[in-house]
């Protein structure tokens, strides 16, 4: 099975779990318009990379997919809420995502703000639910990791830095270190967190946790560089996005500062970092290794 | 000491703890503009009623204020994030709150959205932190309670219902039951949750938890009826708000449907409910009783 096939099979399993959030539980009990907007945001056909990372790292520690799915769905709630808010007119002003209208375009702005708030809160409600994991130590640690990765010193902070460069700081072009920090907060933190949450579910020891963190961190960085390369060079017929959209928005990327060749060299180094980090896990890490390859070489 | 004096003294203690969030921890580590906006949203001089309820219910079960302050600050993060989002142009479009510009007016819309997201996430990061409570069972339960009260089936859902009536459903006037449900989700759930979180910190038994829930639920309802009465009849020189603002926005209130006298009768019944619920706690519940009196008779 190729990694793309694995990802597609996992996505089906994850989509079923996400859809189920609207059949029972707090999302099901919410007002109809809000529920529909949350569903629109969450069930929009994403790759489901972050939940896959939860499932696959958990599997390294012998946790069955069934016992990691709730945690995986919480991470996707965070990812999708951030897209619903980032797409708002006051933020990135995007009308189309994955070929469908964005949440504010399909509903309206206030509904999109509240749908994002609802999904954000739902992520923590899922993690703190005893049905997600019977051990309260695990549940608390999952909440702490996810809040830390996605909050003001993580994903939300990265988005704030990004918008500040784009909308306010035109006269002070960012350095490669600025971009690296921004990207590591905006994208890397949640990807790395997804990996570490799998290790928490598996009660990994400190050495294994450290290895998974190293993998997650290299993977998150690689994801972002590949994204920048796709924005600069990708085929819009395949990516489904306008090429050079970042440039048009005045966003500085590492491709601008380093050129594509150096970016590809760094990508190769990061893949080596991923391989080294996963070496202790031997053959059981095959899918995570393939994920690193996929992230670095994806064409969409 | 009158209740107003108790509230002011507690507010000072709570404000100090909230200010400290920007000295150390995730909010301190966030980008400057985001941090400033979160501080603006959180340190805007609120009454701090919800955190006081956490401290006072915890005290019923012999939990020192110092050991309940972190939990109290998390509840206030949720309250203040909801105000920052509710004030947005696409929502209630408010420019002034408590005599200061709202977050979007003082900064801009994207900063206000992200500051709200940051505060929302921070609340759960605080609750899951072992420094908040050494017992992971308590931490998980606090997260679950707060997420449930503030999410799509609670506060966020109530705001969605409110805006739907105001902006979309002009032809279908709400019934008293509709208004009751909306208000119980939008305002009551978080007030009641604040009380119950104090009981969780104090490891209250099920009977005591039930009594505290009954108190919190009556208190939350009374708070909202008093708010509607103030909107209809309050002195703008004292409330600091325009009179009949709800009416101008097309919001239906119980005062419209029931008239002020029936509202005052229900308020009196709710105060009796609060007294009954607190009876088992005797003299130690004096401050919580005074809070019920304060909520029902406040003039601002």
Quickly describe the structure.
Chain A has helices at 3-20, 32-42, 49-60, 65-86, 103-106, 109-128, 136-150, 155-167, 176-201, 206-233, 236-239, 245-248, 254-278, 286-297, and strands spanning 96-97, 100-101. By secondary structure, chain A is mainly α. Chain A has one domain: Farnesyl Diphosphate Synthase, CATH 1.10.600.
Supply the helix-strand structural class of chain A: mainly alpha
Portion of residues in beta strands of chain A equals under 5%
Shape of chain A: globular
Number of helices of chain A: 14
Residue stretches of chain A low in confidence (pLDDT < 50, at least 5 long) are none
Order of helices and strands of chain A: HHHHEEHHHHHHHHHH
Round the mean pLDDT of chain A to the nearest integer and report it: 93
Main interface: chain pair and counts: A-B, 55 and 56 residues
Oligomeric state of the chains present here: homodimer
| Main pleated-sheet profile of chain A | 2 strands, antiparallel
CATH topology of chain A: Farnesyl Diphosphate Synthase
What CATH architecture of chain A would you give? Orthogonal Bundle
Radius of gyration of chain A: 18 Å
Q: What percent of the residues of chain A sit in helical stretches (DSSP H or I)?
A: over 70%
Distance separating the two termini of chain A: 20 Å
- Kindly report the name of the CATH homologous superfamily of chain A: Farnesyl Diphosphate Synthase
Spatial arrangement of strands, main beta sheet of chain A: 1-2
The beta-strand count of chain A equals 2
CATH C-level class of chain A is: Mainly Alpha
Work out the count of structural domains of chain A: 1
